[in-house]
C-alpha cells in the first residue's frame, strides 16, 4: 500500500487492521510525526518505506531508514522509558577557499557578525583543512556545522562525514565570482565556485535536501551591481543543471545503462530552482548586520520541527560513549561488554546519522571502531594533505633529527631522498607516513585502515629491497604516456565517459588508488603519474589513464595474442572492480562504457574505433554476474569490419577477438 505524497499528519487508523499488509510505502509524507506501534506489529509487515518523512520523531527518521527490525527494536526499548531529545540539526558548509565559510560559522556561533582575515600564502594561514565541527545554538535546537576545507582535494572527506539529513550550505565569494567572470565566462565561474562543490556534495550523498546559499563580499559592489551579479550567478547555476540533465538524457536514450541524475531528487526536479529565493542570504563587512544572522538561523531552524523521543537505554549508551571522550576512539566490543544482549546497531546508526559519531559499519577493517571525537579523523587527514607544500617540507628538513624506524636509522640524507621521491612519484615511504601519523592520537594502524578503506592511499606495497611504501596519486608530478606502439603485446582498452553529474577531480585519483590496490604484491612494478598509473608483471602490462577535464577514464591491459581470451576477462574484472567501487561511494556517478578496437590500438591509429554501450555489455548486478565470469574460450576466428580502416575496397576485415570479447552469451 502506498500513502506517499499526501498531507497526512498520522497514519489512518484503519491501516492497523490490514493484517495481511506486507509493504507500506510512506514516501514524502512530510507532515507525519509518528508511525505508531500498531502498524509495526502487523504480523506480516516486512517493509515500511519512510524515505522523505523528514518530520518523523517516533521513531526518528534515522531509525526508520534502517528497516522494520530497527523500528521494532526502538519500540521495545521505548517501553522501558524515554526522554525527549532536543532537535539535532547538522549542516555541511562548503565553498571555495577564501569564500567566508569560517567567518559565517563564527558569526552564527557567537551570535554577532565576525570576520576572519587570512593570507593563503602564509605558512601559518589558519585555513580549514579537511573539515571542522562546530556546535551552534539555533533556538532550542543544537546545530552541528561541518566546515569543509575549500581546497578541492578535501572533497574526498564528503563521503566520510555527510549524511542524508544534513543541510547543504553553499558559501560564494561574489568578488571571486566577478573576477572569474571577467577572466573566463559567467558559466565557468558559476561551475567552479558553486556547482562543482554542490554537485560533488550530492554525489557523496544523493539523498540531500535543498541547499541554502550564502553570498559574501557584498560590500565590494553597489546595490544594483550586486543584485545583477547575484541574479546572473543564479541563472548560470540553473543553466548548468539543465546542461547536465540534457547530456545524461541524451546518453540514456542512446542506450545508456541508467539515468543516474534521477537518483538526486533535488537536482532532477527542474520544476524548482536549485536555490529557493527564501534560502539566499547576503553578507558584507557590516559588523552590525544581525538581521542577516537571525534570518539565516531562522531558515536553518525551519528545516526541523520538534525533537526526537529517545529510549532511556539509548541515552545511557550515548553517555557511556561520551565518557570516553579522552580516547581517540571506542570499540564496538567495549560497548557490547557494557551493554550485553542489547541491539547496539540501531543506536549507533542513530548517533551516526545525527552527526555525533563516525562509524564505518560496512567496512570490515573499520566496523569495530566508533570515532566519537571527529577531530582525530580530521587531524590525520589534515596532516596527510597539508604536507605537499615544498616550503613545509623544507621546514621539516630544517628541524629534522635522525630517528629509528623498524630497527634502522633514518638519516637526513635518506629522509631528503624519500621526500624527493614523493614529490616526483607520489610514493611515500612508510617511515615518513608513520612519523607523520604518530604525532596524532589515532593509532597508526587504524589511521592507515581509514586511508586505504576510502582509497585515499594505496598500500602498503612491499619493496623488493625491504620495507614498504604507500602511493598517493594526487601528488605525483610526472605524466604517464599512453603510446604503446612497438609492443609485441595486444592492447585491450575500455574507455569510461562520465556524463550528467561527472565525478570531481579527486575521484579519478581515488579510482587510480582502487586500481593499484589490485596490484600490491611486491612482484608488480608500479609507475604512478598525475594522470594515472602503469603496472608491469613480467610481460603483462595494465594501465589506467584519466582526464578529469573531459570526464574520461581509460583502463588498458596488454596480452600475448595466444592469451587474448584471458586478457578480455582480466579487463572486465578490472573495469567492474573500479566502477563497482565508484558507484558504491558516489551513487549519482553515471559511467558510460565503451570498448576500443584492439587492431586500431596495435597499429597506433590516432583516433581508434570505439563501440560505446555495446549491446553485449551491461554493468553487473546482483542478478547478473560479470561478463568476465560468463565468457567462453573462443574457437576459430571470424572477421568483422573496422569502420576506422577505410581502404580502396571498403572497410578492413579484422579478426573478431580484436573487437569483441571472444565468445559471450547474449545479455538478457
Key features of this structure:
single chain; 6-stranded mixed β-sheet; alpha+beta; 3 domains; 7-stranded antiparallel β-sheet; 22 helices; TATA-Binding Protein; Rossmann fold
As a percent range, the share of strand residues is 15-25%
Number of structural units classed as domains: 3
Q: How far is it from the N-terminal to the C-terminal residue, by CA?
A: 31 Å
Structural class of the secondary structure composition?
A: alpha+beta
The spatial strand order of the largest sheet comes to 20-21-22-23-19-24-25
Poorly predicted parts: 120-130, 255-259
Cα-atom radius of gyration: 27 Å
Q: The biggest beta sheet, please?
A: 7 strands, antiparallel
CATH superfamily of the largest domain: P-loop containing nucleotide triphosphate hydrolases
| Helical residue percent band | 25-40%
Instruction: Give the CA-based shape.
Output: globular
CATH topology of the largest domain: Rossmann fold
CATH class label of the largest domain: Alpha Beta
Number of helices: 22
Total strand count, please?
A: 27
Shape-level CATH architecture of the largest domain: 3-Layer(aba) Sandwich
Q: Classify the oligomer.
A: single chain
Mean pLDDT: 80
Describe this structure in words.
Helices cover 35% and strands 21% of the residues. The chain has 668 residues and is of the alpha+beta class. The chain has three domains: 88-288, Rossmann fold; 376-475, no CATH class; 490-658, 2-Layer Sandwich (TATA-Binding Protein), CATH 3.30.310.200. The strands form eight sheets. The protein has a seven-stranded antiparallel beta sheet. It has a six-stranded mixed beta sheet with strand order 5-6-4-7-8-9, sandwiched between helices. It has a three-stranded antiparallel beta sheet with strand order 11-13-12. Helix 6 packs across helix 7 (186-204), helix 7 (186-204) crosses helix 8 (223-253) and helix 19 crosses helix 20 (564-585). The model is unreliable at 120-130 and 255-259 (pLDDT under 50).
